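Lab notebook, bench 4. The sequencing result for the construct came back, and we need a structural model before the next group meeting so we can plan mutations. Quick request posted to the team channel:

Model the 3D structure of this chain.
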Amino acid sequence: MRVVISAGGTGGHIYPALAIINKIKEHEPESEFLYIGTHNRMEKEIIPKRGIPFKEIEMYGFYRKKLYKNVKTITCLYQGYKKCKKYIKEFNPDVVIGMGGYVTNPVIKAASKLGYPTFIHEQNSVAGKSNLLLSSKVTKIGISLPASMKDFPKEKTIFTGNPCGEDAIKKPAMDKTSLGFHKNKKLVLIVMGSLGSSKVNEYLVGAMSLFRGKEYEVAFVTGKDGYEEIKEKNFPSNVKVFAYIDGLTGLMKNTDLMVSRAGASTLSEIIALKVPTILIPSPYVTNNHQYKNAMDLIDRHAAVLLEEKDLHGDILVRTIDTIFKDQGKIKEMKQGLEGLYIKDSAEKIYQELKQMIGVSHGNHH
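Done. Here's the predicted structure in token form:
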């Protein structure tokens, strides 16, 4: 299979894209890929490292407030579209996949204009702008959470779940002693998304001293942005600070309780690995979609909600202690997560792609 794939900006889009690439390779080891990403975001580091051919285009999101800045955005969108047409023609794929982020817009538009079969995937319970704009142009749409079904044309939308979950299950468990933790102590993993959150980090830095003397240990992943400053601080000996943990899902398999944002891919991993979690949705995202993602879990007693505006004093430590004291609560969360898991999501997407290619092979470009 020859595949052009695009996903940009955050791990929430990039990791599902990688999960699909892995699945295609598993079935068809000879497959060839071309990844089109943004010139200045995470994918530029992550993708080439994995030996996947990478082309970049300069892209920016639209500004709601600083409208004059959109002139540049529109110029880049147009130039990006022309570049994508050229890249796609040269590569001549069987299918073109967009996994979210504004970079996918010119990629999928160019592909559909050139007559290639296209597939987009929505990870959140509220559909992203790019995907909504593209939904009329694409061949098929996959969604992760039932809530976003209403946003797309029914006849071409399928409920696939999020392919990150299946990928997470396959990852080997990470030995937490390799990071300096005790084998037999409970581990609390605190992660605020791939870039971290300055506001929550500020609160967490203040709250870390409250973990002194606890029976459990804490892995505090700050995200790349705040790490340099935070690592200089003085923390209790049972707290360890990291900018980023590569293969985080491996560590999640040995985590007793997680504190996390409610981004879609992270949730799919929490669901797949059944990790009891305190969710702190980011209030700074479009349409408050993280809160809505989180509520999908809260409504099924599969997680505990803490809102960012309520982060004061010892509330986090108290919540963690309460959960650890209540084995029933942990069991309830695990059962709730079990009920949300869609098995074989990447496999479902692969079969869907096969079918699309089969249909389109009669049409020559």
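The chain has 14 helices and 13 strands.
Will bring this to the meeting.
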